Amino acid sequence: MINRYVFKQPELVMANICAVTDHLRRKTVASGGDPEREVLTVIPAADGRSFYVDSEGEYWRMYNFISGATTYESVVSPDHLKNAGYAFGRFQTLLADFPIDTLHDTIPDFHNTRKRLDDFFAAVEADAAGRVADVAEEIEFFRTHRELASSLQNMLESGELPLRVTHNDTKYNNIMIDDATGSALCVLDLDTVMPGLSVFDYGDAIRFAAATAPEDETDLEKMGLDMALFEQFTAGFVSATTGFLSKAEMEHMVTGAIVITIELASRFLLDHINGDKYFRIHRPGHNLDRARAQIALARDMERKLPQMRAIVEKYI
């Protein structure tokens, strides 16, 4: 079922998915790959549309089942992560010649971190749930990082960074790993495919897969960036995008990882301040725990910035 709270026009979500998967399928066939296993296939409804609307107005869709492959919530093999980096990089490379102006912007300003921070500070001013006084230290983190968080959006608007066809939700569990070979097989969850920044696709994957603790870890001493996993993903991603990404994109990959982590932290804290309206919580203060964990991760990335840049340059 398509989440209509998040996606106000599900028809456009499916239009994007069908257009992108058709393009990927043609590219996969041309390169001698297996489109039935390497690309999602939308199964049409009886009326020929890519979705079905039930009596309650809910939207449903079906995809082909890909056998002999598994998704993982955490990294069980460094090779898996390297292959996942290659798969997400190849995803962008295969879509390099896709007509980006035909894609629908299904969630406007989804990764406009400058606007995300504007919305965050507006929520701080409103203090809808009376929680602002208890999170002064966290709010100060966003005050001091507001310029950095806005930097990539500013570069996009100035033309220094180009728009790409991006996945926009590059979590490790959105890659199917072949059970027999351990290679990354198919990119899943294409609901947020739309124009975006390549550095955010890279960065969000790093944020999720190379962290040393879960996204909502309460012991902040455990949260940081695993440099070995960082290197594995980077090696795979760069090998798939060499010759495609611009010099500026390569130079700002690490910035993308830090900024996207700050962005998600702000979204978690905003939801906490607003009374937990957006993200599903499983305990009181869950969104605050999430925000604090992501802040800790962003700070560790800043401490390790020279090593991160050196690794990216090594593979470039």
Properties at a glance:
Aminoglycoside 3'-phosphotransferase, Chain: A, domain 2, 316 residues, three-stranded antiparallel β-sheet, two-stranded antiparallel ribbon, mainly alpha, single chain
Offer a quick outline of the entry.
This protein is mainly alpha-helical and 316 residues long.
What is the name of the CATH superfamily of the largest domain? Answer: Aminoglycoside phosphotransferase (APH), C-terminal lobe
Roughly how many Å is the radius of gyration? 19 Å
SS field, number of helical segments: 12
Main sheet summary: 3 strands, antiparallel
User: Termini distance?
Assistant: 40 Å
CATH topology of the largest domain: Aminoglycoside 3'-phosphotransferase, Chain: A, domain 2
The gross shape turns out to be globular
Number of discrete domains: 2
Strand composition percent: 5-15%
Indicate the percent of residues in helices. Answer: 40-55%
Instruction: List the strand order in the largest sheet.
Output: 5-7-8
What does this protein structure show overall?
This protein is mainly α. It folds into 2 domains: 1-65, no CATH class; 67-315, Aminoglycoside phosphotransferase (APH), C-terminal lobe (Aminoglycoside 3'-phosphotransferase, Chain: A, domain 2, Alpha-Beta Complex), CATH 3.90.1200. Helices cover 51% and strands 8% of the residues. It contains 12 helices and 9 strands. The strands form 4 sheets. A 3-stranded antiparallel beta sheet has the order 5-7-8. Strands 1-4 form a two-stranded antiparallel sheet. Helix 3 runs antiparallel to helix 7, helix 6 (146-158) crosses helix 10 (253-274) and helix 8 (227-241) runs parallel beside helix 12 (305-315). The radius of gyration is 19 Å and the shape is globular. 41% of the residues are buried.
